[in-house]
Design a protein that fits this description.
By secondary structure, the protein is an alpha+beta fold. It has one domain. The protein has one helix and two strands. A two-stranded antiparallel sheet has the order 1-2. The N and C termini lie far apart (59 Å).
Length: 73
């Protein structure tokens, strides 16, 4: 059986019904043919793209959160 390798690329934060954090679930990408960085070039590009998307999403969520705090004050 060949070794399977996975690389963690992001987390999804699950929430309770009241909006409080429940737990963070890691997201992994399976990698097979490894380059010097431990993954294929295609997988490396995909991970970079996923990371970029997740960072933008979290930046938006944080901006919305801080805006809601300002509205409350």
């Amino acid at each position: 059986m060949a070794n399977e390798n996975f690389v963690k690329v992001a987390y999804i934060g699950l929430r309770n019904d009241d909006g409080s954090f429940m737990l963070n679930v890691p997201l992994y990408v399976k990698v097979s043919e490894l380059n010097k960085d431990g993954m294929t070039d295609t997988q490396e590009k995909m991970i970079s793209r996923i990371t970029e998307i997740m960072i933008k999403r979290y930046e938006k969520q944080l901006s919305e959160y801080f805006a809601s705090l300002k509205e409350k004050n």
